[in-house]
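Student: Please help interpret what follows.
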Amino acid sequence: MYRELPSGILGVTLWRSGPSGARVGGTHVLPDGCMDLIRHADGFLVAGPDTTSQFSDLVADRPLTAVRFEPGLGPRFFGVDASELTDRRVPLDDLWPSRRVRLLTVRAEDDPVAALVDAVRGAVDEHDPMADLARALAAGAAVTEVAATLGWSDRTLRRRSARAYGYGPKTLSRVLRFRRAVARARAGDDFARVAADCGYSDQAHLAREVRALSGVTLGELVRSHPGSAANRSRLWPSGSIALA
């Protein structure tokens, strides 16, 4: 079972999950531009920003407690450019000194939620300009519009985006548009309307983008949503789809 909890930190979401009891091999995590710090039985895992759907079996048989960072917020906390973690899953030990990891591990033994929130609070800039830029893109702003507002050259925007998001602004915009489209479709909107409102040239364009980013059709994503008739008994992360 998956559930999200408020963290009290803008741009940071707490989430927890545990075995559902169903025979599930894992999940496909859909790209969303986010970075996660995940605590599991064997330690801490860092999930970098994805460009395509990634398979994960972590949720299948163990309890997890994690924090998810909106695009642009993770690099300062982890101490590395997001581009070093794109499409990767690495142990926290690979990024932090062993003493720092041990301290977090000890704190998390009694209360993993409090330990993660305390670790994050004060370590991220909730109003980092790159986080604000990502929020504008998530709301549907065009990359050229955002660049003009910031007064940055295309080169500067690409360089800063690679560090903050793990890829360029156009890729992030593509990922976030995909997320908007999936959310609209799961809310029950007609696919043609979704395509038009989210800025795709037509429904076929939407279908190609969904297949490229998720590996499945938009219809499959809608049917895998917890609210659908086929999944009323299971709840999956907003960035995931259940495997059959």
Notes: The first strand starts at residue 2 and ends at 6. Residues 227-244 have pLDDT under 50 and may be disordered.
